[in-house]
Structures are given as structure tokens and as C-alpha cells.
Amino acid sequence: MADERLAGLYLAIISRYKDYIEEKEELSVAELPTLVTPRADDIVSKADEIKGKLAPYFYDRDFISAAHIAFEFVSTAIEEVALPVQFWLTPEETLRFRAGDRMDKSILLCSLLIALGNPSAKVFMLIRDNERNTCVYFEFSGRVTVMDFKRGIDEYANRNELLERFSITDEDTAYEFNNRSYADIY
Question: Which residues contact 73 (CB under 8 A, 6 or more apart)?
């Protein structure tokens, strides 16, 4: 009962200061890559744990299996929650609290995939009709793999085929980023 009262109190405080929090949480596009943290201790530790399941880990042989393990972990162990405010969690916080929204989960997954050795992993965001759709994709062995918490895992022959999947129009906003780059797609 005390936990419920405390949670209610926290929610009241957050709700009261919602506008202030969201104002301070706004990130510019240049800052989005700072959210992907493949070298953070907690992320490296989780990536090492995943690699340990495939020991000895050889990137060329084992990355796809490791990527599937990472996706399964984030899909099942990280609870998807909708916070009452727009708030960016770091991948370490998402991992620690085992909770976050779809964007937080995608940023964690991207960080893990890069920590597993694939620097091409990117978070992809499509905003259509005020709805945000987020997934993670990477290139490996001449193919593009998309990991989407809503639709599962798909493979494509190339990036153009992947982009066709989304049928991006002039009314949409689309961008991608990882720890090294940010790019507007449309």
C-alpha cells in the first residue's frame, strides 16, 4: 500500500512539472546520437553476456544469432511503458529499470548491436499522422535486417527495399541515427 501511495505522489509531482520537464528534455537532431551508448559499462556487460551464450564468439559466424538474442532480450525483459511526459531514458537506465517506451527500447537495442560489433546498426523513426513508428536496422552479409518491436524481424536485400516498406510520403517525417550519425530520410 505504501508503494502505491508513493507511486501516486511521484505521478502527481511529474504531472505538475510536465511542461518544465519536457522543455528541458528536448533534444536537437545533433544530440540524438548521444543517446546511443555502445561503450557504456552496462551495455558492454550485457553484450558480453550475450556473446558468452555463443562462446567462443566470432563476429562473422555469430553476430546474427547474437542480434536475435539481443532482440529477444529487449522484447521480453524490457517492459514497454508510456510515461506521462516525453522523457529520454539512456540505454543504461532502460536496462536498469527494465522499462521504457518503444524509442527507449530501440536505442537500447541499437547500442547492444553496436557493442556486439556491428557499427551499421541504426534507430529508424517514421512519424506519420502524429504517430511515431520506431525500429532498428543493420546491414550484415549483404542483407539489411529490421528489428521492430511491433512487427518482429524482417530481412531485405538492400536499404532501398527497406525504405520502400515504409512507403514514405511528403507528409511524413523520417530519420535515422546511431552513435556516429544522424540523417533525415524524408
Answer: 46, 50, 112
Contact 135, 149 (CB under 8 A): yes
Taking Cα atoms as reference points, which of 109, 22, 37, 34 lies closest to residue 70?
Answer: 109
What's the alpha-carbon Rg for the chain, to the nearest Å?
A: 17
Domain boundaries, the chain: 38-180
Q: How far apart are CA 95 and CA 72, in angstroms?
A: 14
Would you identify the CATH topology of the domain 38-180? C8orf32 fold (3.10.620)
Q: Tens of pLDDT along the chain (186 residues)?
A: 557 765 665 556 556 655 655 455 566 667 889 999 999 999 999 999 999 999 999 999 999 999 999 999 999 999 998 776 666 789 999 999 999 999 999 999 999 999 999 999 999 999 999 888 999 999 999 999 999 999 999 999 998 998 898 889 889 999 999 999 999 987
First to last CA, the chain: 49
Task: Enumerate residues 6+ apart whose C-beta is below 8 A from 65.
Answer: 54
